UniProtKB/TrEMBL annotation:
Domain Release factor glutamine methyltransferase N-terminal: 6-74
Organism field: Niallia circulans (Bacillus circulans)
InterPro entries in the record: DNA_methylase_N6_adenine_CS (IPR002052), HemK-like (IPR004556), N5-glutamine_MTase (IPR050320), PrmC_N (IPR040758), RF_methyltr_PrmC (IPR019874), SAM-dependent_MTases_sf (IPR029063), Small_mtfrase_dom (IPR007848)
Alphabetical list of Gene3D superfamilies matching this protein: DNA helicase RuvA subunit, C-terminal domain, Vaccinia Virus protein VP39
UniProt-recorded name of the protein: Release factor glutamine methyltransferase
Length: 287
C-alpha cells in the first residue's frame, strides 16, 4: 500500500525513464481514482489500495509502451468538453480549437451569430469540430461526414453525450454525397489528413503506431485531400460562404493557391496559431 503522492511520484519517474511525458502520470492517476485534479490534491496523503495501485500500474505500463493516454482513458478535452476517443479516430488537437474559434468569429462578423446557416464538417472523425460548432452556435444546421462508419459511430456518441442535437451524419467520400444530392453549404470546415507519407520516420511512435494512419497521412506532399476538396467545393458552396481548413506547418501557401484557383474572387487568408505557425487557411467567398 502507498500514498497517492507516492504513486504519482513513481509514475512520473517511470514515464520519464521511458521517454514519455511526465504529465501523463497525473492524467492516468486521476482516471484510475476517478477524481478531479483538486480532489486528487486533497487526497494526496491518503492510501491507495493494493489492487487499485496494480490497476494504475497497468495503465502506466501501457503508456510507457507508447499507447496514447487519451486512448487509455478513452477521452480528450476539446474546447472545454470531454470527447470520447478510441483507435478509430484521431485524437483532437489544441490547434483545431483555433480553427473552431476563428470559424465562429468569421460567422459572427460576416453573417451574424444567430444566422440559420448550413455548415459541414468534412472528415469529422471524433466529431470535435461539428459538435463544438453546434454547441457554440445552436442556430447552425450542422452536417458531419466521414468515409468510415466506425469513425461516425464515435462522432454520433459524442454528439449524444454532449447534447449536440440535431446533427446530420453522412458516410461518404469527401463532398461526393452532397454533389450527388445537389446540396450546398454556407460554411465548410475540414481538418483532413495532411502529413506527407515520408514524414512517418520522424514522428513519435505514440502517434504512428497507435493513431489511425488514414486520419494522418495524405500522399507524398500531404496535399492530396486539399486538392480533391478544392476540385469538389464549387458546386456545394453557396454564393456567400466561408471555407476553413486546418493545414500542416508550411502547407498554407500551397493550400491558399488551391482555394484561389477554385474561387478567384474570394478573399483567401492564411491564419497563424498561438505558436506562430501557419495552421489555418480561410476563404471568404462572395463578400
Amino acid at each position: 500500500m502507498c500514498k497517492v503522492f507516492e504513486a504519482l511520484k513513481w509514475a512520473s519517474s517511470f514515464l520519464k525513464e521511458h521517454n514519455r511525458e511526465e504529465y501523463a502520470a497525473e492524467l492516468l492517476l486521476r482516471h484510475s481514482l476517478q477524481v478531479s485534479r483538486s480532489e486528487m490534491l486533497m487526497k494526496f496523503r491518503e492510501d491507495i489500495g493494493d489492487e487499485q495501485f496494480k490497476d494504475f500500474q497497468k495503465l502506466v505500463y501501457l503508456h510507457a509502451k507508447g499507447q496514447p493516454v487519451q486512448y487509455i482513458i478513452g477521452q480528450e478535452d476539446f474546447y472545454g468538453r470531454a470527447f470520447k476517443v478510441n483507435k478509430e479516430v484521431l485524437i483532437p488537437r489544441p490547434e483545431t480549437e483555433e480553427l473552431v474559434q476563428s470559424a465562429l468569429a468569421r460567422i459572427d462578423r460576416l453573417f451574424g451569430k444567430d444566422a440559420a446557416l448550413k455548415l459541414i464538417d468534412v472528415g469529422t472523425g471524433s466529431g470535435a469540430i461539428a459538435v463544438t460548432m453546434k454547441l457554440e452556435c445552436p442556430s447552425l444546421q450542422v452536417v458531419a461526414s466521414d468515409l468510415y462508419e466506425v469513425s461516425l459511430a464515435v462522432a454520433k456518441q459524442n454528439a449524444a453525450n454532449l447534447g449536440a442535437d440535431p446533427i446530420e451524419f453522412v458516410q461518404g467520400d469527401l463532398l461526393q454525397p452532397f454533389i450527388a444530392q445537389g446540396k450546398s453549404f454556407d460554411v465548410v470546415l475540414s481538418n483532413p489528413p495532411y502529413i506527407p507519407e515520408g514524414d512517418v520516420m520522424t514522428m513519435s511512435d505514440v502517434v504512428t503506431e497507435h493513431e489511425p494512419h488514414r486520419a494522418l497521412f495524405a500522399g507524398e506532399d500531404g496535399l492530396l485531400l486539399y486538392k480533391r476538396l478544392c476540385e469538389e467545393l464549387p458546386p456545394v458552396v453557396k454564393e456567400k460562404a466561408i471555407i476553413g481548413f486546418e493545414v500542416g506547418a508550411g502547407q498554407s501557401n500551397a493550400v491558399a493557391q488551391l482555394l484561389e484557383a477554385a474561387f478567384p474572387q474570394a478573399k483567401v487568408e492564411v491564419q497563424y496559431d498561438i505558436n506562430g505557425k501557419d495552421r489555418m487557411v480561410f476563404a471568404e467567398v462572395g463578400f
